[in-house]
Amino acid sequence: MGPLPVLARRPWRAVPGVFWLLGAFGLAGVTVAAWAAGTGRSPGPARWLLLAGAGYLLLCLAMGLIAGRGLGLPGHRLWLLRQAYHLGNNLYALSLLALLWGFPRPLGRRWLLGLLLAWVLFCWANEWWGWVDLPGHDVLLQVGVLGAAAFGALGAQLLAARADPGDRALVLWLLLAQLPLLAVAMPFYFFLQDPHLALGPAALEAGLGAALLVLAGCALAVARFRLQEVERWWTETWIWLTGGALVLGLYLAVSWLLPPLVPLAPFVALAVAGWLHQPLRRLLWRLFYPGVPAPPLGEGLPHRVLEVAAAEGPAAERLWRNLLDELFQPLHMESLPPAPLSGGPAMPQVVEEGRALLVPALRGGGYRLGLPGRGTRLYGRADRELAGAVHDLVVRLAQGLEEQRRGAVRERQRILADLRQGVERRLRVLAQRCEGTPAARIVAEALQALEEVIHSTREPGAREPLVEAAGRWRAQVEERLAPRGLRLGWRVDPALEGVVLGGLDLLHLGRILQEAVSNALRHARPSRVEVALERRGGFLTLRVSNDGVVPRADEPHGLGGQGLSNMGRRARELGGVLRLEEVGGCFTVTVDVPLPAGEAARAAGPREAGEAGGEAAGAHSEVPAWAGGGREGMQP
After folding, report:
1. What pTM, to 2 d.p., does this model score?
2. Do 595 and 506 fall within a single domain?
3. Taking a C-beta distance cutoff of 8 angstroms, is the pair 365, 335 a contact?
4. What is the pLDDT of residues 263-287, one digit of tens each?
């Protein structure tokens, strides 16, 4: 077989696929760099990225021509292509190094970049003129120095950004971008220099492909793409790499230490790695994130959600703000006015590259939450989903509770209608028939009590001045004491003038008063009954005293009977406590209930309004254990 002829020209259709593949790599690199620059989010770093993209394109085209047509090129053209390859390689590496040096924060000492540029130029010239025989024949040493400088710059950037979660996310993006360089590009670059390893074009394609991934990762960082998710991706990437390294290390260890098990080494490595991976993950997590706090609220979250849903009006909005603050611990929180069209953010949104979270309010508008974790991290998809789920749950629960309240109102109206049409009508007929008899008073009292229940229940939101209700109560008590010849002492604190309470609250207070008077008449022999309504701080105190003596035979019934139990239940529904005292021959029933905030301030007056909380605490410090009306652990 004779010598093979060398064609003077080679048609483009005969160019190997490696040329077109590397050309596509180069075009993709320039396109990615141009896209990042076009976002306009980091103009300065984007210029370095464009230079790196241009260098990468030149590198890929030169290597494609050398790999596809090198044997058919004249010597001087091959030399020019090699120079173009070195120029593209150096431009790519130095531009990325300059980017890492100034992004996200300028590191200073730019003269170090000048030294590295001089070093690269020296190695490039030394390769052709052979001034000094450097380790690795210039190329390997040059790449090693540039790689060490790049990771040194990344380490300095990470230290500088440790207090700023936004900058820290950018550095993590850049670190993630270097993983293909560490895992593929640099190993193949060094292996290509070994003449004993015939790796072929596949190694070249893999190395340049990894370099393209590095360029793309840096472009995503320059474009600030989804910074809020980077920390999660960073953690998941290292978990994945740890698992892969563990399997590979175990495989090599089994192959070296137990040669008979070499055929089974992959299966043994996978089995042991699966057993060790979870504990190793926990160890690495504690090592790298020692200060990660426990999730806020925890098991208390359902209770807090229900508390927000059950509240109404401004109170519900205030509780919703407090819940958001506990969930995310933002640096700050500001209210957003309702948007002209949307009425505020319809769903939670992560904005400003994860530095803020927009959360809808319960009734129009919304809130802007600053950096979470008191400024230690960025918001991510998990935060957005958590805020959306909690908001949706609160709204649905509030709607359900509102439907329940409406149903209760409808049922209350039905029962009241039955009372009016049935019981009240029969009592009025009975009162007419008993007129002039001793039973008439009892029937009249029952009818009056029924009317009070109907009035307070029919209008649960109706309110009445306390002084007016007290006048009605006085008339009822006097009517009961007069036939027995008993005296009544009645005192209403002037500070209660102007206090207005709800119908149900007044009904409970009136029933407690009537029951206390009934107990005095039933179980003692009083000559006088004293009733006092007082203000003590932010609390209303009802005191009923009598100078009678409880017979021994009646003591168990008097202290633990149904009447006292009913008084205690009503006191609890008012948020207060019931106390029983026997001092100086007088038996006293005392009920302390909190006044609503506005009524407490009105009762206190301008001078004493600030003291409303201090005086009340002592009113509940001595609750006898035998007082059935007391509520365990209650401090109103």
Report:
1. 0.53
2. yes
3. yes
4. 888 888 888 877 777 777 777 666 6
